[in-house]
Amino acid sequence: MRTRLAVAALAVTLAAGCGGSTTPETPAASGAPSSEQPAAGPVTLTYWTWAPNMDKIAEVWNQAHPDIKVTVSKQAGGDDAAAKFLTAAKAGNAPDLVQAEYQHLPSFVAAEAVADLAAETAAVKAEYSPGLWGLVTLGTESVYAIPQDSGPMMLYYRKDLFEKYGISVPTTWEEYAEAARKVHKANPKVYLGSFSSKDPGWFAGLAQQAGAQWWSIAGDAWKVGINDAATTKVADFWGGLVNEGVIDDQPYFTPEWNKALNDGTQLSWPSAVWGPGVLESNAPKGKGKWAIAPLPQWNAGESFSGFWGGSSTAVSANSKNKAAAVAFATWLNSDPAALDLLVKEAFVYPAATKGQAALGDPPAYFAESQPDFWQQASAIGATARGFTFGPNVGVTYNAYKDGFDKAIQNKSAFGAAVQSMQDATVSDMQKSGFTLAQ
User: Fold this and answer.
1) What residues form DSSP beta bridges with 152?
2) CA 85 vs CA 98, 196, 298, 302, 311: distances in Å
3) How far apart are the first and last CA of the chain?
């Protein structure tokens, strides 16, 4: 397949590391995927994951499949987990299965560290929304993981304070801006929301909603378009509100931001489906007062969202038991009983549509204010569109933090920060030997 050839061609040009990246690139792992036929006799698979209680879930599988035993190895999440897996793949001792965040998966592909599962996963493709399936697909033909959990974005808002300030839930970003002005004029200590220069994943989700495509494959080359019109539009919108002074510029998850959520001086938060846990921990006074709605749209009548966070289950390219590994990964992420365990034991929002549909009681924090929380979240999630991440997303994310920190400090145009992300990403890929499309 052309896409696979392109990825292979790109992979052999990788340097041992990627300057400035929190996810170092590694040369191709030796060895091709093993035969797709199950191994004769019992096999043991190793699964690297950071999700809690995954060993309990694997034990349910083990009891029902005595010939395929899955041993869970608990890992740290984030960039460190990705770097550790790439190092193990290079050394030829990677686990059979690995939990892979969507933004890290392309770096695994470029290093030839994970297997193409297109043929094996065709039967379960319909279990997931097109946006989610796109996050595990590179090009148009190759699939490198099975979606496990997802983070569709929505607008969290204080129902009582929206009523107090006489504002309606904004359905467009233009309405959001007008609401921000109205609230801050009524009380200069209160903001409708905040722009975070420390959370590139948040910004990436908003760019996805706007229709951005940061990376793509063109023939045998990568195409980088972080400075596309959609992303620039998102940046200019938030930059205008920050420089106007009607939106706060306090980064998320700081003590100051937590306090604002809790004391009612910040009224909304464009976030992901995992938001209830953050609110419950950091804004206990708001219990029963927050609700969710779809993100405001760029054009009236549209219905789009994006993703902030989420992960998949990938199979190592040099696993000697690929068929068994695929069988477990498929069961874990599509079997109704397994999906129920993912929710109850691992506390994740399942990627599979039927797993979302089976969710019952709302999060306790929303029991009074929004009893249909999961139904609303599922409907919003179906509208989320993702994009292809690139092999050096760590560089891009670092450039986001640097660029937007400077823009806020200097009160300069946010569009320049987007251009700095583009420039840093392209420069790093060129230094690492990637072929880039013109």
Assistant:
1) 307
2) 8, 29, 39, 40, 15
3) 23
Does an H or E element contain 109, and which? helix 105-110
What superfamily does domain 153-306+391-431 belong to in CATH? Periplasmic binding protein-like II (3.40.190.10)
Could you give the CA distance from residue 152 to residue 306 in angstroms, rounded to a whole number?
A: 6
Residuewise pLDDT in 10s, the chain (438 residues): 333 333 333 332 222 223 333 333 322 222 333 334 455 569 999 999 999 999 999 999 999 999 999 999 999 888 889 999 999 999 999 999 999 999 999 999 999 999 999 999 999 999 999 999 999 998 778 999 999 999 999 999 999 999 999 999 999 999 999 999 999 999 999 999 999 999 999 999 999 999 999 999 888 899 999 999 999 999 999 999 999 999 999 999 999 999 999 999 999 999 999 999 999 999 999 999 999 999 999 999 999 999 999 999 999 999 999 999 999 999 999 999 999 999 999 999 999 999 999 998 999 999 999 999 999 999 999 999 999 999 999 999 999 999 999 999 999 999 999 999 999 999 999 999 999 997
Give the β-pairing of 221-224 and 290-293: unpaired
Largest CA distance in the chain: 72
Is domain 2-151+309-381 given the CATH code 3.20.20.30 in the classification?
A: no
Provide the whole-model pTM. 0.88
Residue 301: count other Cβ atoms within 10 Å of its Cβ.
7
Looking at the chain, the domain(s) classified CATH 3.40.190.10 span 2-151+309-381, 153-306+391-431
Give exposure, 146-171, as e/b (b: 16+ Cβ within 10 Å): bbbbbbbbbbbbbbebbeebebebbb
User: What SS3 class is residue 269?
Assistant: strand
Judged by DSSP in three states, 80 sits in helix
Within 13 Å, how many C-alpha atoms sit on residue 350's CB side? 26
* Angstrom distance (rounded) from CA 23 to CA 16: 11
DSSP 360: -
- The bridge status of strand 43-49 relative to strand 68-74 is parallel
| Residue 48 to residue 71: CA distance in whole angstroms | 9
* Phi (first) and psi of residue 266, to 5 degrees: -130, 125
How many Å apart are CA 295 and CA 152, to the nearest integer?
10
Phi and psi torsions of 103, nearest 5°:
-70, -20
